Amino acid sequence: xxxxxxxxxxxxxxxxxxxxxQETASVVEDFKPSAVNQLGRDFPxxxxxxxxxxxxxxxxxxxxxxxxxGVKYDMKKNDAGVWTGESAPQDxxxxxxxxxxxxxxxxxPGSLYFYGAGRWxxxxxxxxxxxxxxxxxxxxxxLVSENIYFSKLTxxxxxxxxxxxxxxxxxxxxxxxxxxxxxxxxxxxxxxxSQGKANLIxxxxxxxxxxxxxxxxxxxxYAYKNQGNTTESKPVSVFEEVMMxxxxxxxxxxxxxxxxxxxRAIAGLSMGANQTMRIVMNHLDKFAYYGGFSGTSNYPSxxxxxxxxxxxxxxxxxxxxxxxxxxxWLGLGTKEPKPFPGSVGAFRKMLDKQxxxxxxxESPATAHEWLTWRRDLYQYAGLLFK
Amino acid sequence: xxxxxxxxxxxxxxxxxxxxxQETASVVEDFKPSAVNQLGRDFPxxxxxxxxxxxxxxxxxxxxxxxxxGVKYDMKKNDAGVWTGESAPQDxxxxxxxxxxxxxxxxxPGSLYFYGAGRWxxxxxxxxxxxxxxxxxxxxxxLVSENIYFSKLTxxxxxxxxxxxxxxxxxxxxxxxxxxxxxxxxxxxxxxxSQGKANLIxxxxxxxxxxxxxxxxxxxxYAYKNQGNTTESKPVSVFEEVMMxxxxxxxxxxxxxxxxxxxRAIAGLSMGANQTMRIVMNHLDKFAYYGGFSGTSNYPSxxxxxxxxxxxxxxxxxxxxxxxxxxxWLGLGTKEPKPFPGSVGAFRKMLDKQxxxxxxxESPATAHEWLTWRRDLYQYAGLLFK
Lengths: 386, 386
Fold this sequence. Notes:
homodimer, 25% helix
């Protein structure tokens, strides 16, 4: 029996060395349909290791690959013409992905679609150990409303989504504080209440009395000046002007807001963190809270920041910043790639040098992705308007 | 010169007979990107003939086809590996479509995605001659809010979208009448405010004072009884019970509604017309208006209807129906396929026989598709609550 066991172990070791165990033997066969599949679709699936298994009928294809996390995984065809294959283990949380069929990058017809990476495409959810904080629970649920409005500054129709807490519709007299919450590069105003779960995070926080009922406004961070028929070729971003002169006045007139600075917060992720930091520092008379999720305005530099020149010296008077910003909050995933740890690190070093109080939160084992930002929102929203 | 002209015409006729003129020569080269493309995407495109041109890079594919309106059109590959091809002229309005790459049916990465035909997939808009009535205009815009709620009857989380007119947020005391508006088979609660343009149709109607400001509730017509751990295999639809016992009470408690029968209307398209006709006739104490868009409850039969037995004799007392239903409205596209003209025709014949007043509207040159239903909503909403 001992002899048999020794041989078995030897075979296993040899197999692992040849790559077989990583590629095949180590795939645990406990795959389940992803939580963000289309109704009734069996694929894509996720197993307990965080592997993604995709499957698609493509009887006449030469090569089909699963493209996720920057890596393309070959899929295999069965006799019925159905291609199936799986990825290496992925981090917990939400990821964008796609299929590649004979060189065509297309959404997986089995998944729901999300806007990110500059396109509507497939997404998948690797169940997170702490997924309970954004689960749909039997608590009062707020509404998410779609608002379209004409922007004179950009000469275009724009859209924002507005979360109103459950209490908003129960008490027609009460006014609420507002958080302006921005997405990142190549994302849009749909992100925070879709893959970001912002509405569910707030529903749960409010039900647990861990957050004050608040309105959340999620607009689109891309806004370019209407340059008419000029020959200027480079678009000029006017997002700050749109936020201050169009979005905030519209929200304050359309919704029952508390419209003083003490009841207005702002936050954003990545590009949105950079944008909202500029906005808050240029308008400290309008906001009392700032949250920067995986981003700061010195991005992409990791160099030491000179507070006398950075953002026109807005952080130079540390005492004044401390007095005006009730919460200055920064978050980062522990697995974020360059340059984020460097640039956020340099920014924090500058804050410390200036004696500026701030909170720094690290999301365990997540990269520059949505589980980091869901956790950031959960942490940050609990500190607002208190 | 005359001789030259004769030869030219002869060649043209011969070419047409060989199929060349339909397939190639008659394609007018005035294609423009579709109105429902993803941001910045050049394809798919539509020309003045209503042809759809799709294009996708798939360098290693053997065969790529555009699949629209039940027909698959071969596309051709250029030297850069990009496949391009166009369809025959399509009807005005909105159509679902997809691409087929070596046998795989996938969404076109250029289009926005819509839920219909039982899947999230590509859609395209052939500009309609009357498209102005659902255009985004500089008028006050209402909000469309997403509501999630737990249904005890189905033991599941469900969702509805609620349109509130612009005035709803301007006057926190005013109450509004409600239209319950249902989708068709293999569609869901997203359809009416996405491809259906219900919010824009009402924004425009209200701004033109052609409709009374109203709330519109769009829920999901698929609702099955929670059968627990029984061995019954066939799901039992409880949509009527969910509507009457869960959706309406929730809407009346969450929104500022006028909750008497005179201020409650119902309508639906196709399967939704069938469902809502049953609901209205079973609950004439709760509704005063009915709209059936491309459907009736005798579907799919075109046989003569016996009013003493049809829907338990609900249409047998014509005078009573006339007294209770302020508007009984039916619509149908002139190009609808079997069995719709027959079944709606048989239903109308029964109404006439019973002396039941009704309005019948025909949408010109449209089939069982969304332009028919947009027009239906425009016509029907203008008659409500007056």
